[in-house]
Amino acid sequence: MLDSKIPAGPLEQKWVDYKGHVKLVNPANKRKLEVIVVGTGLAGASAAAALGELGYKVKAFCFQDSPRRAHSIAAQGGINAAKNYQNDGDSVFRLFYDTVKGGDYRAREANVHRLAEVSVNIIDQCVAQGVPFAREYGGLLNNRSFGGTQVKRTFYAAGQTGQQLLIGAYQAMERQVALGNVEMFSRHEMLDVVMVDGKARGIICRNLVNGELERHFGHAVLLCTGGYGNVFYLSTNAMGSNVTAAWKAHKKGAFFGNPCFTQIHPTCIPVSGDHQSKLTLMSESLRNDGRIWVPKKKDDTRKANDIPEEERDYYLERRYPAFGNLVPRDVASRAAKERCDAGYGVGTTKQAVYLDFKYNLINKYGKTEAGKLGIENPDTETLIRLGKEVVKEEYGNLFDMYEKITGENPYEVPMRIYPAVHYTMGGLWVDYELMTNVKGLYCLGEANFSDHGANRLGASALMQGLADGYFVIPYTIGNYLADEIATKPIPTSHEAFVQTEKAVADRINTLMNIKGKQTVESFHKRLGKIMWEKCGMARNAQGLQEAITEIQQLKKEFWSDVRIPGGITEMNPELDKAGRVADFIELGELMCKDALNRNESCGGHFREESQTEEGEAKRDDVNFAYVAAWEYKGESNWELHKENLEFEVAKPTQRSYK
Amino acid sequence: MEHYMMNLTLKVWRQKNANDRGGFESYPVKNISSEMSFLEMIDVLNEELIRDGKDPIAFDHDCREGICGACSMYINGRPHGPWEQNTTCQLHMRAYKDGDTITIEPWRANAFPVIKDLVVDRSAFDRIIQAGGYISVNTGNAVDANVMPVEKDKADAAFAAAACIGCGACVAACKNSSALLFVSAKVSHLALLPQGSPERKSRALNMVAQMDKEGFGACTNTGACEAVCPKGISITNIARLNAEFSLAALVSQ
């Protein structure tokens, strides 16, 4: 039933051959074809721009007040590409291999190889658009390292890489708006997919300014709506990030792939209290220069700077000498949890570890700068002063962010960090062409399940978003639309539009009429707590079963006691949020179900029942080398479909970073 | 950091919709921790308002880490509040003490009409970008990224200008509601790079023309914009825009 449509032939020839044989749409016909793009992050903005350039009539939608504010903007550290500008042994194959291995052999080889191939085009495209990547004194591009790799292949713009890439894509899209190829609808939220004769033919969305429902037709619909980390309430996602568009598609028949694959990022600013509304990431790139440690003594109450070197446990360097502080995210997160659970955590809550820059500030940057300036035998103070300047240039905005939140100066005292929900590898199931199992419905970027397996490597989300939008969908969508050139735009007075809009309106009315006692926020917090405790960094069968029961109960309570103030035909952020939380509750149940089904540990999915003697994730390739694609069958009812994963080139082995 | 609790009075601009006159309302807020962010303090108040059957305060916010540019509060007479190079969402309550009164308003500018409470319409900024805030290069055209070296100083200066988050604080701070810091940041970002050079003239002319059309005021060099910019965008960008604009205007004549 699941056809991944992976082209035949050797791995490195698949994409080349596909492009050579895919159906094309001639320029005159492109002008007659309408494409809806939902979401304007890296995937959506780049897709809207690229399809507009090709001549399709594009309508783009975002819930923010401007497309430039999509959450891709917050990505910090960088974007990977197999350029090998550093002459350190990188290649398309290595990027492919690192990504498949980093994903713990739960990604599709063909997709990942294509991603590695187009990675080099992305950097070229972005530079041509004016993205101000960091450069060397010779004027050429600079690189840094990220976790799970042993080469320097990450391009960056200080700690604001996502911002610069998104502004590039946003500008390219706004150019198409000016040329009349893209029509932009901001402050609009998609609330359902319209299906006509088994194909996605449009959307129903709500204008968030006046509350009115709108119908929009498209020959194809692209969902580029990001991840669902906010199901945990506290995450590094933006407040508005949600699963609603993907979830509506799921309920219209699109399979949800690997929903339990969640990335817990090791380096985030710890929770400070119950009032906390979100968590802030400190880029993985900081692990280039920061060393992670805890005191060797349990419950050590001394200040970090008072603990002498020999009494510090650099546990990542100790456990994983080959990769040290640059192990992949899932490994680093679990190691932090292990130390804190064992009683070595720091700070008031004891749920934190140190990320310390002093060593490299002095020994790496300070000494290099002193050498450049010809200072002989510099004292420590001079080295710190010189080193600070370089660190400031590399990560300045991150250090400022940390200080604003915590009130502590990370140049002087080590950062306190703890893992937090950051990214979701799961998402709508898509085939090689990025089409879901619903015809004409595509899913790009973080919203799909495709490229990162059970764990995403750092600096690969930006790469995937832009790969999907700039370099994959412009080819693959033609293969579908070539057969649609005779399809005239369907008027939105069509019965399917009327019925779908009515269902959306009914649901909104139902929500508003509950008039209960509890706020939307309070339900969201309770859901988050269940998910974090029972479907978070470590999971077990008993906890997951409990979670499913608790979530079903929470759902009942929500639909009988939620209180939404205000009216329907006006700006009403609480109503927007209520719809999203209702969808998160349903998704939460599916995530637990998927986690329960996957009785193995892989990547970010750690089942306590399946670990090695050293406490590492233990995969079960015999029973679980598949993508779990869930079909919605009705309330709390899903059917599992399996796409078996074949590894022809990157043969699965026990992942080791020692 | 040692934390402490405080009770405050908020004076908040409430306006039901674009046609409503609007006015201030006062709200007491209790047991606010100095570790909370400013927006978390508003969250606490909103939860109370909802429980009391009242309409919560509408405000724009999303990333809550100072990069998306959505938050836009005018706090005690200053966009984004008292801290330097800071957005409202990054402001934390340790900036205040027990008993303080805090006045919160939306951005005030003709080109940014109020939609509801503290939410304003900043789509004028998107239209200014549409007028020329880009490099006209189609996907797939690009040559190898390292073919054209860029002097590090210029690349760094372009990056500094490109750090603009499009929040509109510059407009809100300016007595003339000028958008020149925003426009100059984009013109500078692209003009400083060799890739942006071919369109330098038309870009400066078209973006400035669109800015005027949107109803933003003139720049009288008070520097208020630079003082409140959360990303430290320098007014030297305005000088660069003026030079670009003059040159372009001269040539086009």
Describe this structure in words.
The complex is a heterodimer of chains A (658) and B (253). Chain A has 658 residues and is α/β, with parallel strands linked by helices. Chain A is 38% helix and 15% strand. With 253 residues, chain B is an alpha+beta fold. Chain B has two domains: 5-105, Beta-grasp domain (Ubiquitin-like (UB roll)), CATH 3.10.20; 123-252, Alpha-helical ferredoxin (Fumarate Reductase Iron-sulfur Protein, Chain B, domain 2, Orthogonal Bundle). Helix content of chain B is 34%, strand content 14%. Chain B has helices at residues 38-51, 123-130, 152-162, 169-173, 180-191, 200-213, 224-228, 236-252; strands at 5-14, 23-33, 74-75, 78-79, 101-105, 114-116, 119-120. The chains are: A alpha/beta (658), B alpha+beta (253).
In short:
The complex is a heterodimer of chains A (658) and B (253). With 658 residues, chain A is of the alpha/beta class.
Based on Cα principal axes, name the global outline of chain B: elongated
What is the count of structural domains of chain B? 2
Helix content of chain B: 25-40%
CATH superfamily of the domain at 265-421 in chain A: Succinate dehydrogenase/fumarate reductase flavoprotein, catalytic domain
Distance between the termini of chain B: 61 Å
The interface involving the most residues is between: A-B, 83 and 80 residues
**What is the number of strand segments of chain A?**
21
Q: Can you count the helices of chain B? A: 8
Number of strands of chain B: 7
| Cα-atom radius of gyration of chain B | 21 Å
Summarize this structure as a short list of keywords or feature phrases:
heterodimer; A: 658 residues; alpha/beta; Flavocytochrome C3, Chain A, domain 1; Methane Monooxygenase Hydroxylase, Chain G, domain 1; 5-stranded parallel beta sheet; 5-stranded antiparallel beta sheet; 21 strands; 38% helix; B: 253 residues; alpha+beta; Ubiquitin-like (UB roll); Fumarate Reductase Iron-sulfur Protein, Chain B, domain 2; 2 domains; 5-stranded mixed beta sheet; two-stranded antiparallel ribbon; 7 strands; 14% strand; elongated
